[in-house]
């Protein structure tokens, strides 16, 4: 949750990489500021958006500064300029969009051999964005059958108390249970109120990557289960996860992406459903009040789980990934992991991935949801996220924090967390 700023900078230039980088960016010596002329950063289709560009150093406009800039739909800039000298440190750029989507102005100021980025992304009738990904006719049958088959495998749960993490108020366990077939297990950290009783529960699903987990605490009145998705214990040394991330699990979102029965995320999605099954079998669970939450890949998994498991009553999702893969095949930004941004789909990929695209799960979400993201996200483009959000039929609320990228403000975290606790 607090990765260093270098990781966030890397993410800005590497949209194929995704982490739990939620730390607020650090202050820089030089600041490139891009300001839309509408305070709410919202425009109509064909309406001209005006971007005021200013470069500051020590609080003053930096004269004779050289900048490069891009202007146009996110990932499809219509204008690119290099080595533009701003004599007084400022300029104005203008553009519009012919279709609903997001218009991005990206500026790189080059000062003394260093680069400083400024970014502003504005919405153009974002409420009209619809998915480019097709909804398979047998989507519901495919997942109903997959879940039914998975549930033939008994959970066979195993719990191990972690005394060093437990307190007088909560008991913390490392847990595992079987997933979609015998021997395939999901691992996680369970935090349980120490006082006897029956409690609501929150399932925390992870962002992308391979890492250990320490559990998610919501106080002594809520059961919390935080899971990993890769079928290995979540308390191993960091070196183990690093080696897997660079080795056997490198690029795991692309594993078998032309086969819906063996694609990597099939096991992952089913594992999230089995995690809900595990919670419902806990005698301490109140048997009704279950929420799911996560960010990025975890935001995607929150939507997926709520769609596949109707017993989930609430969800809170930050900047969901895995939305609207086919956007790139229709001339607009698609979601992480950007399968078709730089390469053409192989035979069967488009059809297979439609069964795993979050937009098709979003169409089926009935749970009450809180969603939150920013317009400047270059990892999970807002076009892709709105493609999912706009088709959710259940009660929903969206908290937009305009300048945020693939990170959150502390206040943003607090508001969404409090909303979740209020529901429970």
The counted number of beta strands is 18
| Main β-sheet, spatial strand arrangement | 10-11-12-14-13-15-16-17-18
Total of DSSP H or I helical runs spanning 4+ residues: 9
How would you state the average pLDDT, rounded? 94
Q: Which stretches are poorly predicted, pLDDT < 50 over at least 5 residues?
A: 1-22
Order of helices and strands: HEEEEEEEEEHEEEEEHHEHEHHEHEH
Strand content: 25-35%
Helix content: 10-25%
Main sheet summary: 9 strands, mixed
End-to-end Cα distance: 24 Å
How many whole angstroms does the radius of gyration measure? Answer: 22 Å
* Spatial shape: globular
Briefly note the structural class of the backbone: alpha/beta
Question: What's the layout of helices and strands?
Answer:
Elements: H1 5-13, E1 30-36, E2 42-43, E3 49-57, E4 60-61, E5 65-73, E6 79-86, E7 90-95, E8 101-111, E9 114-124, H2 139-150, E10 158-161, E11 170-178, E12 185-193, E13 199-204, E14 223-227, H3 238-246, H4 264-280, E15 285-295, H5 297-308, E16 314-318, H6 349-353, H7 358-362, E17 368-373, H8 382-389, E18 396-400, H9 410-423
Parallel strand pairs: 2-9, 13-14, 13-15, 15-16, 16-17, 17-18
Antiparallel strand pairs: 1-3, 3-4, 3-7, 5-6, 5-8, 8-9, 10-11, 11-12, 12-14
């Amino acid at each position: 949750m607090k990765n260093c700023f270098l990781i966030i900078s890397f993410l800005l230039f590497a949209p194929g990489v995704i982490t739990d980088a939620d730390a607020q960016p650090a202050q820089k010596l030089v600041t490139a500021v891009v300001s839309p002329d509408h305070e709410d950063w919202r425009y109509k289709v064909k309406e001209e958006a005006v971007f005021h560009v200013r470069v500051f150093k020590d609080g003053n406009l930096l004269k004779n500064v050289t900048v490069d800039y891009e202007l146009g739909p996110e990932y499809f800039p219509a204008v690119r300029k290099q080595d533009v000298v701003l004599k007084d440190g400022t300029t104005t750029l203008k553009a519009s969009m012919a279709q609903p989507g997001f218009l991005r102005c990206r500026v790189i100021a080059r000062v003394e051999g260093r680069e400083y980025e400024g970014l502003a992304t504005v919405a153009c009738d974002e409420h009209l964005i619809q998915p480019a990904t097709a909804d398979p006719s047998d989507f519901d049958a495919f997942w109903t059958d997959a879940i039914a088959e998975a549930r033939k495998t008994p959970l066979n749960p195993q719990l191990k108390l972690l005394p060093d993490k437990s307190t007088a108020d909560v008991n913390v366990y490392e847990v595992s249970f079987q997933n979609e077939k015998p021997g395939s297990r999901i691992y996680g950290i369970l935090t349980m109120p120490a006082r006897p009783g029956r409690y609501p529960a929150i399932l925390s699903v992870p962002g992308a990557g391979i890492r250990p987990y320490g559990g998610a605490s919501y106080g002594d009145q809520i059961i919390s289960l935080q899971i990993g998705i890769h079928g290995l214990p979540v308390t191993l040394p960091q070196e183990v996860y690093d080696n897997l991330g660079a080795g056997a699990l490198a690029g795991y979102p692309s594993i078998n992406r032309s086969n819906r029965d063996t694609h990597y995320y099939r096991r992952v999605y089913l594992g999230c459903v089995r995690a809900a099954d595990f919670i419902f079998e806990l005698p301490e669970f109140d048997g009704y009040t279950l929420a799911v939450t996560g960010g990025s890949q975890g935001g995607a998994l929150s939507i997926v789980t709520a769609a596949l498991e109707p017993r989930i009553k609430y969800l809170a999702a930050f900047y969901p990934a895995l939305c609207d893969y086919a956007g790139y095949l229709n001339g607009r930004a698609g979601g992480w992991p950007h399968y078709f941004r730089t390469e053409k789909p192989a035979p069967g990929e488009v059809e297979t991935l439609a069964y795993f695209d979050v937009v098709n799960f979003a169409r089926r979400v009935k749970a009450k949801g809180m969603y939150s993201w920013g317009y400047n996200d270059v990892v999970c483009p807002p076009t892709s996220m709105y493609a999912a959000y706009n088709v959710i039929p259940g009660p929903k609320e969206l908290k937009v924090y305009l300048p945020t990228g693939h990170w959150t403000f502390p206040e943003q975290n607090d508001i969404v967390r409090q909303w979740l606790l209020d529901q429970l």
